[in-house]
Write a sequence for this structure.
């Protein structure tokens, strides 16, 4: 199976975690696009399959609205049953690196509203330890050089992502060369650097379930 087919497989499988008639939290990326498409298909036969979504990006909002799915502002929702999102890397403990699509801040906010985080990913995303994928960090523009120097002290090399402004008007610094051995501690340490809006390590908001697309089918990791 191609990577695209594996993404379709897990996008469809995620529907099983969405309670009928609920409001669903929706992440961002090419795998989530497959989930949104599956949701659109399900709505054709069951118009009450979901009553709305809380979206983590302009990109996902546009896709949801194009399918007639109402998108609710996060500030009007107090709790979601489930949040569905992809990952750039996920380890066996459910810790993730996210932000390849630059939507990490809103992803963390919407994930925090949800009782359950279901990560959908093809098998290439499963790693033994986080850190090979360049770590995305959303940064206030005036702090970018300072944040890059702070990462250099930790042994990382940061670069501002070219041509990328986040939905929040900030920049993304992608950092390579880091050893992320304790994801939760790392996440809270990086959050202390002035100018960092969000670090792309999701350890506090880690996945409760990972639906991994493999050539043998969907594997469920808990
Ligand atoms: C966007 C993300 C995505 O979930 C992550 O980049 C995975 O994307 P894809 O499903 O396209 O591989 O964190 O900010």
């Amino acid at each position: 199976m191609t990577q695209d087919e594996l993404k379709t497989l897990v996008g469809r499988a995620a529907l099983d975690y969405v309670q009928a008639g609920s409001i669903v939290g929706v992440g961002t990326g090419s795998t989530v696009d497959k989930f949104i498409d599956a949701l659109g298909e399900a709505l054709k036969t069951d118009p009450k399959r979901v009553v709305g979504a809380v979206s983590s990006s302009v990109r996902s909002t546009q896709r949801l609205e194009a399918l007639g799915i109402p998108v609710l502002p996060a500030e009007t929702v107090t709790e979601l049953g489930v949040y569905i999102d992809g990952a750039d890397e996920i380890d066996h403990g459910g810790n993730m690196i996210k932000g390849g699509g630059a939507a990490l801040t809103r992803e963390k906010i919407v994930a925090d509203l949800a009782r359950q985080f279901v990560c959908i990913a093809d098998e290439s995303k499963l790693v033994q330890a986080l850190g090979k994928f360049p770590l995305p960090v959303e940064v206030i523009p005036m702090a970018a050089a300072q944040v890059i120097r702070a990462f250099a002290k930790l042994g990382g090399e940061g670069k501002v992502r070219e041509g990328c402004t986040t939905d929040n008007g900030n920049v993304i610094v992608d950092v390579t060369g880091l050893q992320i051995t304790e994801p939760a501690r790392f996440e809270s340490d990086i959050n202390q650097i002035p100018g960092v809006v969000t670090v792309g390590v999701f350890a506090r908001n880690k996945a409760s379930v990972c639906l991994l697309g493999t050539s043998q089918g969907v594997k469920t990791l808990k």
The pocket of ribulose-5-phosphate is lined by residues 27-31, 85-88, 98-104, 107 (CB under 6 Å). The mean pLDDT is 97.
